[in-house]
């Protein structure tokens, strides 16, 4: 049992945090050794199991990342950009694999994570599911095969509580489409349309975001040409796919060389 890798969950009270706590606690391949929340959170000092309304798990919620990671091999982090970039430095100090599922990261945030990855193993992805990562690969291939006569639109839908748009997955798909076309996404992205916008610019990649209800995650990549359309789609119906992917990434990262990896590396794609 003591040889089983220890995992810390950051943002343990959140929607994904709770799911990860339950998954790791029940996994025969890992041990839950830490649960983190921000200073002042009501759960600090409580057993994470009891705080979640479950039996005790023997792990108390802490606001001290270094203490929590002292006996861990990995930390899984679905929180906020500010919390994630701060944790990246501490995970590097602790020599713990840092699995990042946080979305809404800026170029500056990613540069900060790149710096931490010189000394740490970081696995970062806008989406941890196998299906989405296959969709990313397909998007890149289709975009490379079609010229600007086919307009590319990415439509994503999520639950009403999601705070960032476009989603991290939509941005992954946009990056894949841009890479397939051999262009920089920042130069061709249309991320909002309102009012009299004029005609669509050839070669641009459009994004639309839908928010409502309890939608787990839906992503369409539309290639619209004259007289025909190609639609690539992924529908997530259970948030557990992201938690399982994150745990897989954490276990995969243990023992790797320092670097900034993604789910394509984890899945061998």
TrEMBL record:
Which residues are annotated as active site?
Answer: 158, 162
Q: Where is the Dihydrodipicolinate reductase C-terminal domain?
A: 131-267
Can you name this protein?
4-hydroxy-tetrahydrodipicolinate reductase
The transmembrane segments are: none
InterPro entries reported for this sequence: DapB_C (IPR022663), DapB_N (IPR000846), DapB_N_CS (IPR022664), DHDPR_bac (IPR023940), NAD(P)-bd_dom_sf (IPR036291)
What reaction is this protein's catalytic activity? (S)-2,3,4,5-tetrahydrodipicolinate + NADP(+) + H2O = (2S,4S)-4-hydroxy-2,3,4,5-tetrahydrodipicolinate + NADPH + H(+); (S)-2,3,4,5-tetrahydrodipicolinate + NAD(+) + H2O = (2S,4S)-4-hydroxy-2,3,4,5-tetrahydrodipicolinate + NADH + H(+)
What are its GO cellular component terms? cytosol
Task: Say which species the protein is native to.
Answer: Maritimibacter fusiformis
Chief subcellular location equals: cytoplasm
Keyword Cytoplasm found: yes
**Which residues bind NADP(+) per the record?**
54
Q: Which UniProt keywords apply?
A: Amino-acid biosynthesis, Cytoplasm, Diaminopimelate biosynthesis, Lysine biosynthesis, NAD, NADP, Oxidoreductase
**Which residue numbers delimit the Dihydrodipicolinate reductase N-terminal domain?**
7-128
Residue sites binding NAD(+) per the record: 11-16, 37, 101-103, 125-128
Q: Which GO terms describe its molecular function?
A: 4-hydroxy-tetrahydrodipicolinate reductase; NAD binding; NADP binding; oxidoreductase activity, acting on CH or CH2 groups, NAD or NADP as acceptor
SUPFAM superfamilies attached here? Glyceraldehyde-3-phosphate dehydrogenase-like, C-terminal domain, NAD(P)-binding Rossmann-fold domains
Which enzyme class, named as a word? oxidoreductase
């Amino acid at each position: 049992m003591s040889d089983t890798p220890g995992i810390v969950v950051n943002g343990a009270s959140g929607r994904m945090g709770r799911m990860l706590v339950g998954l790791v606690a029940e996994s025969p391949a890992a041990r839950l050794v830490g649960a983190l929340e921000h200073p002042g959170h009501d759960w600090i000092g409580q057993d994470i199991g009891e705080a979640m309304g479950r039996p005790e798990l023997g792990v108390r919620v802490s606001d001290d990342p270094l203490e929590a990671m002292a006996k861990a091999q990995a930390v899984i982090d679905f929180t906020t950009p500010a919390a994630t970039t701060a944790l990246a430095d501490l995970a590097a100090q602790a020599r713990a694999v840092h699995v990042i599922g946080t979305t809404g990261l800026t170029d500056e945030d990613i540069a900060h994570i790149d710096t931490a990855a010189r000394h740490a193993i970081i696995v970062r992805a806008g989406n941890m599911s196998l299906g989405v990562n296959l969709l990313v690969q397909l998007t890149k291939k289709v975009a490379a095969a079609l010229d600007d006569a086919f307009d590319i639109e990415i439509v994503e839908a999520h639950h009403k509580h999601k705070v960032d748009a476009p989603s991290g997955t939509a941005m992954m798909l946009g990056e894949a489409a841009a890479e397939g076309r051999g262009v920089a996404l920042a130069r061709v992205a249309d991320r909002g349309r309102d009012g009299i916008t004029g005609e669509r610019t050839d070669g641009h990649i459009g994004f639309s975001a839908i928010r409502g209800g309890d939608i787990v995650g839906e992503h369409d990549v539309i290639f619209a040409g004259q007289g025909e359309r190609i639609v690539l789609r992924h529908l997530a119906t259970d948030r557990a796919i992201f938690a399982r992917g994150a745990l897989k990434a954490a276990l995969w990262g243990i023992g790797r060389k320092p670097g900034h990896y993604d789910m394509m590396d984890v899945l061998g794609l």
